[in-house]
Design a protein that fits this description.
Layout: H1 7-48, H2 54-86, E1 91-97, E2 104-110, E3 114-116, E4 121-126, H3 133-137, E5 141-147, E6 150-165, E7 168-174, H4 181-189, H5 205-211, E8 218-223, H6 229-243, E9 253-256, H7 260-265, H8 269-272, E10 280-281, H9 283-290, E11 296-297, H10 300-308, H11 313-322, H12 325-341, E12 348-349, E13 355-356, H13 358-367, H14 377-392, H15 398-411, H16 417-427, E14 441-442, H17 444-458, E15 468-471, H18 479-488, E16 492-497, H19 511-518, E17 522-526, E18 528-529, H20 534-543, E19 550-551, E20 560-564, H21 567-583, E21 588-593, H22 596-607, E22 613-616, E23 626-631, H23 632-635, E24 640-645, H24 656-666, E25 669-678
Parallel strand pairs: 2-4, 8-16, 8-17, 9-10, 9-15, 11-14, 15-16, 18-19, 20-25, 21-23, 21-24, 22-23, 24-25
Antiparallel strand pairs: 1-2, 1-6, 3-4, 5-6, 6-7, 12-13
The structure holds adenosine-5'-triphosphate.
Adenosine-5'-triphosphate (ATP) is lined by residues 184, 187-188, 199, 202-204, 207, 223, 225-231, 498, 501, 530-531, 637, 639, 667.
Binding site for ATP: 223-230
Domain UvrD-like helicase ATP-binding: 202-533
Protein name: DNA 3'-5' helicase
Length: 686
């Protein structure tokens, strides 16, 4: 007999579950109150009794801490219960184990586990539990999952999906498929929120494999635009926090994200999944940190702007060379060269009668080669003086010690990293490859190699406590940057991106290049694109074909291309499109320009037609709902119900990097896309 066979029975069961959760909430509230009262009693006792003996104080202190810890975990539980009251579960599978004789289990799956202490049974299973994986991986029929004690085989006889909101069941679907297409279609057709949302109810099989991959040391996810890479990476973090509880907490995870707006945009997913948000940083922050924030540098955004503007061929060449593996191997050879040639030992006369011979000093420089070059001087001095004390009974004074150390330091050719870096380019006979900008500002492409040399000379900063590193927009970082990341964060990693969406075509990395830079790493692919309608995805494919991409069959309006005689007409048409958007059910509109300067200009111009425009610059820190005007670079990773791409003329979109920008802009649209231009249209518009 099937448990809760009909929809009526399911609705009644939901009511029962909600009552049980409410009982549990009342009990935890009582327990929280008891803890608070006890702590208050302790406090009053301590305040009113001045002469308590130290033993009593100690034992009270322990009790207080114990109460505090239990109190905190009860509060956590209370928070979780409050959350599951809204949507207790979203799926169900009926599973019969082949070996066991305990019959068929109806497993309800939700964001959190719910254990009923009265019935002594798990009423809801966490979506991350091993048994729940079958919900995502299997259709009706034979199924299995990996439990801690081995593979469990069995049979799924029923599969249901529910939409429950505020404790009420809106509908349920019985399905033989993994995740029912109707529900996925409904989710995908909904409008964009101001923050990325979780997709736990509709995770697809190929996505689930990535979320639950525990083997890969570095998991590299190459996924087409809109394939759910970022969502999946965040669900993976939630999964790891669940399975590795006790070993890893959200504070042990670090996200390297492209900018603050993106970090803000994704900041809701983990809390929605019941986990804390994780720390976030940027590549520039890391690299500049290695160099003690000593140098002014062109940031990545400025480099992209220069590439879009009028880059000189030499500028492009410098970026390209520094993103090559040949460059890394030259740099490594040079480090070896420094090791062999930069330390020129000389005799050091410590007293009238005592001289430390050059040969002996040189020997010590080589002896301590496990230390970075500039970190050897202290240890060498100590060792030399120890040897002299042993062999010659010479006991050096502090002044003599300082003198020796200073002299040894002087034997190393260079103190300045920049000078060493310049030497490198002389050594490879390519001095033209290094160019300092005005105001002693470094080019962005020099930041990483300079940091690499700095590590060879001074060592890495203190070992990081990061246990899992997440890198988004992987294609925008070059191999040398990955080499540094590997030195700094030898932990496990999840790295994701899409080569087709590079805003750094001369210095970008493919999944294979990243794998090569890390030596180890597993590449997994996501080929299905979920964000945009079939029509928009097909349009994007004609701008830049990705053979691996598979568009989801969700249909919508065909993208529109509007041509005008002059910029005034174009602007007035855009303002009309804005008016139509305001009357529509769509919640977000992105007006995406090629550069930030163009976005700023258009914002100013549109202000006389419409209000509530939000200009998103590279200095912005938060994403906003409504009408956003921004550049392609900033729009990367974001999505909008509707997108307008202005100024798509042949002069504005003409080069390789322009094409990438157009592709990024087009793939931000979920439901509607309009491209406008005056004069000749860009050759990239299909
Ligand atoms: N299994 C799924 N169920 C529901 N929605 C999904 C699913 N997978 C992806 N999506 C939706 O597709 C959209 C794109 O997801 P996401 O931004 O994570 O993709 P991405 O690969 O990082 O995109 P891009 O590289 O283009 O920025 C989001 O709206 C996300 O909610």
């Amino acid at each position: 007999m099937v448990f809760n066979k009909t929809e009526e029975q399911e609705k009644e069961y939901l009511r029962q579950i909600i009552n049980t959760i409410n009982d549990s909430i009342n009990n935890t509230d009582k327990s929280v109150k008891e803890h608070v009262d006890t702590l208050q009693e302790y406090k009053e006792y301590l305040w009113s009794n001045k002469d308590i003996d130290p033993h009593e104080i100690r034992s009270m202190r322990e009790s207080i801490l114990r109460h505090f810890a239990t109190g905190e975990s009860v509060i956590d539980k209370r928070k979780r219960l409050g959350k599951i009251l809204d949507i207790p579960y979203f799926g169900r599978i009926d599973f019969t184990e082949s070996k066991e004789r305990c019959g068929t289990m109806a497993l309800y799956i939700g964001i959190h586990t719910f254990y009923d202490p009265v019935k002594k049974a798990n009423l809801i299973y966490d979506w991350r539990a091993p048994i729940s994986s079958m919900f995502y991986d299997h259709e009706l029929g034979n199924a299995s999952y990996s439990s801690p004690s081995g593979e469990v085989d069995g049979n799924i006889s029923l599969k249901r999906q529910y939409r429950i909101r505020k404790g009420k069941m809106e509908y349920m679907i019985e399905s033989s498929l993994t995740v029912h297409d109707d529900i996925l279609q409904k989710e995908l057709s909904s409008n964009a929120d101001d923050k990325m949302k979780n997709i736990v109810t509709t995770i697809q099989r190929e996505q689930n494999r990535i979320i639950r991959n525990e083997e890969a040391q570095a998991l590299i996810i190459q996924g087409v635009a809109g394939s759910g890479k970022t969502s999946i990476a965040l669900h993976r973090i939630a999964y790891l926090l669940y399975t590795l509880k006790g070993e890893i907490t959200s504070k042990d995870i670090l996200i390297i994200s492209p900018n603050k707006v993106f970090a803000d945009y994704i900041s809701n997913v983990l809390p929605e999944l019941g986990e804390e948000t994780v720390p976030e940083t940027s590549m520039e922050q890391i690299l500049s940190g290695i160099l003690d924030h000593k140098y002014k540098y062109q940031n990545f955004f400025e480099q992209v702007t220069e590439l879009l503007d009028k880059p000189t061929p030499e500028f492009i060449e410098r970026i390209q060379y520094k993103a090559s593996f040949d460059f890394i191997s030259q740099l490594e050879k040079f480090i070896l060269y420094m090791e062999n040639n930069y330390f020129k030992a000389t005799d050091v006369k410590l007293t009238k009668h005592i001289t430390v011979p050059a040969e002996f000093i040189d020997e010590q420089f080589r002896r301590f080669n496990r230390y970075p070059m500039r970190k050897r001087f202290e240890t060498m001095t100590d060792y030399i003086l120890e040897m002299m004390a042993l062999r010659h009974y010479f006991k050096a004074t502090t002044a003599e010690r300082n003198l020796l150390k200073k002299e040894i330091q002087k034997m190393f050719s260079r103190n300045s990293d920049i000078q060493v870096y310049k030497d490198f380019f002389e050594w490879i006979e390519k001095p033209e490859m290094f160019k300092m900008r005005k105001n002693r500002t470094l080019e962005y492409a020099d930041l990483a190699p300079l940091a690499y040399l700095h590590i060879a000379l001074e060592g890495s900063p203190t070992p990081s406590r990061v246990k899992h590193l997440l890198i988004d927009e992987m294609q925008d970082y070059s191999p040398i940057q990955y080499k540094i990341i590997q030195k700094l964060y030898p932990c496990r990693k999840t790295i994701l991106g899409d080569t087709c969406q590079s805003v750094n075509p001369y210095g970008s990395s493919t999944a294979d290049m990243i794998q090569k830079a890390f030596i180890t790493g597993e590449v997994m692919k996501l080929c299905k694109s979920y964000r945009s309608t079939f029509e928009i995805t097909s349009f994007a494919q004609r701008i830049q074909t990705n053979e691996e991409l598979e568009a989801i069959t969700r249909h919508g309006e065909k993208p529109t291309i509007l041509s005008f005689k002059n910029p005034e007409k174009e602007l007035s048409a855009i303002s009309e499109l804005i008016t139509t958007f305001k009357k529509s059910t769509y919640k977000s509109l992105g007006i995406i320009c090629k550069t930030e300067m163009q976005a700023q200009e258009i914002t100013e111009e549109l202000k006389s037609y419409t209000d509530n425009l939000y200009f998103l610059s590279h200095q912005s820190t938060a994403f906003a709902k409504g009408i956003i005007v921004t550049s392609s670079h900033m729009a990367k990773g974001l999505e909008f119900d509707e997108v307008i791409i202005p100024q798509a003329s042949s002069t504005n979109y003409n080069t390789l990097i322009d094409k990438s920008m157009l592709y990024v802009a087009v793939t931000r649209a979920m439901h509607k896309l309009t491209i406008t231009h005056w004069g000749k249209p860009s050759r990239f518009i299909p």
